[in-house]
Design a protein that fits this description.
Length: 61
Amino acid sequence: MRSTFGVRLGYFWIVFLSGTLLTKAAEQPWVVMEGREGPGRGKHIVLVTGDEEYRSEESMP
């Protein structure tokens, strides 16, 4: 009986922690790197890519 309780408790923690970690990862879907001195100061870089039959490298310059 005790081992069944431990297994259920383990499953509960796995599900609980998985849900918690996934919601935390979705809060910031992008990375912000603040620039300092140089020619890129104040600029925004947007990367757009796609995948069509494993040929995404042909569509990007």
